Design the sequence.
């Protein structure tokens, strides 16, 4: 993409007219028109001002091969590392919630606190999805791949204890006797089948 096209695109994405941009740069509207019409080039000082005003790098503005700042190798590396750190942080939170669920359900055998501990997990997923939808128009392939991986991991970490609670509740209506080991086996099988099916559905939806 050429510099004139980039200036037009960035100006319009900010909802500015040529007059608005000219005022912000302290140049004439005719100068903006000449830049966008490729009949004149902004000087080095104007390029620097454009970079700061639009929040992009000068490399992006001056290099015709770059379609966005994401194409710059260093920017790609930084954004990829940022996504990786966010992934580690969110998965760590989910593991902490899982430990709390384990303590409440298995050790303390308190169903109320077990269910209550699932609320932060739901809030974490909801907050993530809200943030993703809000910035969906700017999401690149790395963000989309991160979202898919995050949901797959969340499924495996998050649905065991809800399934355990449901199965154990339903087991109260099943005529006894049945062994605890058999019940735990049923819970495990249902958990594995459910998690696998959900992950397959996530993978299928991501390809649409």
Sequence:
């Amino acid at each position: 993409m050429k510099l004139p096209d980039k200036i037009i695109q960035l100006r319009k994405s900010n909802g500015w007219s040529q007059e608005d941009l000219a005022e912000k740069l302290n140049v004439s509207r005719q100068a903006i028109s000449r830049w966008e019409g490729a009949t004149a080039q902004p000087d080095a000082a104007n390029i620097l001002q454009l970079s700061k005003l639009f929040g992009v790098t000068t490399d992006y503005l001056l290099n015709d091969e770059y379609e966005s700042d994401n194409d710059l190798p260093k920017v790609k590396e930084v954004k990829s590392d940022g996504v990786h750190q966010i992934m580690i942080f969110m998965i760590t939170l989910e593991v902490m919630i899982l430990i709390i669920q384990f303590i409440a359900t298995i050790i303390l055998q308190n169903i109320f606190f077990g269910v209550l501990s699932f609320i932060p997990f739901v809030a974490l997923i909801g907050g993530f999805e809200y943030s993703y939808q809000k910035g969906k128009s700017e999401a690149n392939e790395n963000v989309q791949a991160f979202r898919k991986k995050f949901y797959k991991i969340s499924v495996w970490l998050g649905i065991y204890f809800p399934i355990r609670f449901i199965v154990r509740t339903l087991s109260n209506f099943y005529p006894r006797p049945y062994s605890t080991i058999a019940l735990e086996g049923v819970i495990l099988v249902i958990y594995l089948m459910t998690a696998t099916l959900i992950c397959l559905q996530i993978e299928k939806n991501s390809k649409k």
Q: What stands out?
A: The longest helix spans residues 73-107. The domain at 3-71 is CATH 1.10.260.40 (434 Repressor (Amino-terminal Domain)).
